[in-house]
Amino acid sequence: MRKLLEKWKWLWGSDRTKYYAVTAVFVLSVFFFSENNVIRWINTRFEISRQEEIISEYRKNIKEAGRRLEALGSDLDTLETFAREDFYFHEPGEDVFVCMPE
C-alpha cells in the first residue's frame, strides 16, 4: 500500500503532470462530452453540405421551370403541344391514344 501511495505522490508531485491531466480532461470534455462536441460539429457540417447540394438542385429546377413558363406564355403552339403531351388534352372530335412504356 505504501508503494502505491509513493507512486501516486510521485505521479501527482510534479506540476506538469497536473496540468497535463487537467488539459486532457478539458479536451475530452470539449471533444466528446459537451453539448456542442466535435463529433456533432462534423456531422452537422456533412448535413449542411448535403442540404446545399439539394438547394442547388432546386435552383436548377426553378430556372428550368421559369424557362418553360416563359416559352409556354409566349407561344400558343408550344402551349398546345405541352397540354396535349403532358395532360392529354384534345379538341372535340379527336381521339387520344396513350402509349405506356413497358
Automatic annotation (TrEMBL):
Keywords: Coiled coil, Membrane, Transmembrane, Transmembrane helix. The chain crosses the membrane at residues 20-39. The keyword Membrane applies. InterPro entries: FtsL/DivIC (IPR007060). Residues 48-75 form a coiled coil. This is Septum formation initiator family protein.
